[in-house]
Specification:
The chain is an alpha+beta fold. It has 18 helices and 29 strands. It has three domains: about 180 residues, 2-Layer Sandwich (Threonyl-tRNA Synthetase, Chain A, domain 2), CATH 3.30.980; about 240 residues, 2-Layer Sandwich (BirA Bifunctional Protein, domain 2), CATH 3.30.930.10; about 100 residues, 3-Layer(aba) Sandwich (Rossmann fold), CATH 3.40.50.800. The longest helix has 20 residues.
Length: about 600
């Protein structure tokens, strides 16, 4: 029985928990081979919160298979088998893994380096590790699900079966994770997107292309308007550069050879070959080049909400989190080297303000650096990279920002400071990014006239506040569980007349609120009031205003919150004033009077 994991071939640092999950993945492969001796093994790396393994099996797995595999794993863990390492030659590895085609492919690819095997019991694994000392060091485990996955992520390769599992140090941590997993299922943005009538996908339009219903567009509009308003205050100017770009521009910028796999095929025009834009940078640099710039003009800050198009693999599409039509709140800042510190500080202030408004206060910065061992993935020489990375470090250090350096995660044109935030369930998301670029402005001939009267190349800082609108919306839906703060809620007020005779008054109130900028809807159906209240609560509308005989006579509304709290009767003008203040201040929670204080 043999196994190889290509993620192990390249040396990397693993935390103790990652080592344990790595070992658990091998124990799972051992258990699957016991259950299916003819299985062909793929790869099995540790991932965030657990591990997975890919297999080619004689039949499709069912959920009923997972408990048996899990039980076999527990038996191996109880036997406390030591993980033992020894070096092997390529010839020895090929002999060990004969009959395992996916392993042989990996050996041929990675055999130029040192090879070693780990063994626990009868199971032999080709990898560098690291592992725990023995299977007995693996903590509580749980197999979660199975799914299809293309070998090495390519649709051109065979479809394998992937089993996901999780492992933790203690039973309490496992149970907390499983509890949060159940909460996450309830908050799944795909599920809530349907229930709250926010967005849909249609096979007639195509996979990965979301269609936003009126409520979803209202949410999207508020998200983008807020960022537009805030970054305008910080001195960014908005531009528009369209959807199509000549292919030659992406060739000059360096994107084409590196990103061609995710670009849609060329569009042959009468005068040139075009591409749907997968990114904005070359267009913004071209826009910069259309005008004369003196050093006195810098910095120039171009911001754009542009829909970009990326031909993502169908197996990697996931609701709004991974789509083929993606909108970015993109920005490119053209500045001198002396201005990098102040521009970086400005971007940090903007990002911090936006994150606080959405309630994200727990975040850190991942400093994504290039890997000199894979220099072919990046543009420019080592000197340019060292300079850019040092500038980014200096900017972070000057602001006292804590960061975690990560090798090999830089963009091809420069290092990145990626902001990683946690949502209400403690899950980590990448939101904002700030990147320093010396490479593209040189390739595209960006220039300004310096104080010395000579042309100079500006530094370009790439900056996104919330990143992709669609992905950020997915995170917000799950973070708030669909119960958005009033300023974001697609419907802020539901007017619920008790009887048909109360509908004209409720309609008058709705019209008044709409003129004031409040998103109000009238439920004038001939249904019981309790049903209307229940349905408004399911739609997670922040406030429900009930109108009956007393309200019509006194020009008031009876106010209920979506949590079920009865706020009581308020004059229409007073409620209007209170909710407008709540919307204007973008409060995260209700600011209306507590029912107990009325």
């Amino acid at each position: 029985m043999v196994e190889v994991d290509n993620t192990d071939i390249v040396e990397k640092q693993m935390s103790p928990l990652e080592r344990m999950r790595h070992s658990a993945a091998h124990v799972m492969a051992e258990a699957v081979l016991e259950e299916f001796p003819d299985a062909k093994l793929g790869i099995g790396p540790p991932i965030e919160s657990g591990f997975y393994y890919d297999f080619e099996l004689p039949r499709p797995l069912t959920p009923e298979d997972l408990p048996e595999i899990e039980e076999r794993m527990r038996r191996s863990i109880e036997q406390d088998k030591p993980f033992e390492k020894r070096p092997v030659t390529k010839a020895e590895a090929l002999e060990l893994f004969k009959g395992q085609p996916y392993k042989l492919e990996l050996i041929e690819q990675f055999a130029n380096g040192d090879l070693s095997v780990f063994q626990h019991g009868d199971f032999i694994d080709l990898c560098r590790g690291p592992h725990v000392s023995s299977t007995g060091d693996i903590g509580p485990i749980k197999l979660l699900s199975n799914a299809g996955a293309y070998w090495r992520g390519s649709e051109k390769n065979p479809m394998l079966q992937r089993i996901y599992g999780t492992a933790w140090d203690t039973r309490e941590e496992l149970e907390e994770y499983l509890h949060n997993l159940e909460l996450a299922r309830e908050r799944d943005h795909r599920k809530l997107g349907r229930e709250l009538e926010l967005f849909v996908f249609s096979p007639d339009v195509g996979s990965g292309i979301p269609l936003f219903l009126p409520k979803g567009e209202a949410l999207r509009y508020q998200m983008e308007s807020y960022v537009r308003e805030t970054q305008t205050y910080y001195g960014y100017r908005h531009v528009w550069t369209g959807h199509l770009v000549k292919e030659e521009l992406f060739r000059k910028s360096g994107h084409l050879p590196l990103y061609e796999e995710v670009q849609f095929p060329p569009l042959i025009g009468e005068d040139a070959t075009y591409r749907l834009k997968p990114m904005n940078c070359p267009s913004h640099m071209t826009l910069f080049n259309t005008q004369y710039h003196s050093y006195r003009d810098l910095p120039v800050r171009y911001a754009e909400f542009a829909t970009l198009y990326r031909n993502e693999k169908s197996g990697e599409l996931h609701g709004l989190s991974r789509v083929r039509a993606v909108t970015q709140d993109d920005c490119h800042i053209f500045c001198t080297e002396d201005q990098i510190q102040s521009e970086f500080s400005r971007a940090i202030e903007l990002i911090s303000e936006v994150m606080a408004t959405y309630g994200f206060t727990e975040y850190y910065v991942q400093l994504s650096l290039h890997d000199p061992e894979t220099a072919e993935k990046y543009g420019g020489d080592e000197g340019v990279w060292s300079r850019a990375e040092q500038m980014l470090r200096d900017a972070l250090d000057a602001l006292g920002v804590t960061y975690v350096p990560v090798l090999g995660e830089a963009a091809f044109y420069g290092p990145k400071a990626d902001f990683m935030a946690k949502d209400a369930l403690g899950r980590e998301w990448q939101l904002s990014t700030i990147q320093i670029d010396f490479i593209q402005p040189a390739r595209l001939g960006c220039e300004y006239i310096g104080e010395d009267g000579a042309p100079h190349m500006p530094v370009v800082i790439h900056r996104a506040v919330t990143g992709a609108t669609e992905r950020f919306m997915a995170m917000l839906i799950e973070h708030f569980g669909g119960a958005f703060p009033t300023w974001l809620a697609p419907t802020q007020v539901a007017l619920l007349p008790i009887a048909e005779r109360h509908v004209p008054y409720a309609e008058t109130v709705r019209e008044r609120f709409t003129r004031s900028g409040i998103r109000a809807e009238l439920d004038d159906r001939s249904e019981r009031l309790n049903l209307k209240i229940r349905e408004a609560q399911l739609q997670k509308v922040p406030y429900m205003l009930i109108t009956g005989d007393k309200e019509v006579e006194a020009d008031t509304v009876s106010v209920r919150s979506r949590s079920g709290g009865d706020i009581g009767s308020l004059p229409v003008s007073e409620f209007e004033s209170l909710i407008l203040k709540e919307i204007r201040t973008r409060a995260l929670t209700s600011t209306l009077p507590d029912p107990e204080t009325l």
